HAD family hydrolase
Amino acid sequence: MFSNYKPTWMVDAIYKVTPEQLKKHGIKAVLTDLDNTLIAWNNPDGTEELRAWLEIMKEADIPVVVVSNNNAERVARAVEVFDLAYVARALKPLSRGINKAYRELNVDKNEVVMVGDQIMTDIRAANRAGIKSILVKPVVNTDSWKTKMNRFLEKKIMKKLLKKHPEMKWQGELQ
């Protein structure tokens, strides 16, 4: 049961994932959660590190699409400065938003990856959609009130996952 929450990879931060690493695994597009994955949930302006990473992805012709449970107004405001496509109200852990995003990109399931900081929403949705996933550490150590309950449950699930899958380890890059 808990294997439904198992990520394909665990990388310290989305910014450490390079086009070369993605291409090595046949990945042509990145779907990403917004809050605490791409940007801090309480700082929608992003960082220079984020801007540099997005530019590297753009130069490598790897589209990045935000797949968020937030409403369209919130997501649009956060991503407009980065000129990113998005799917709002994705309904993660359901696969609806992920399916919509990769179909709009016109790529196969095996050519896309979902990056997120929560196993109960992002990783579970990726597994339901049948795509690869990357769990990243949250950008900041605080969460909105909506996420706090998930974090509590995630700790219990991660403990069981790590016991069953000792190969699950945080990496500095996509292996």
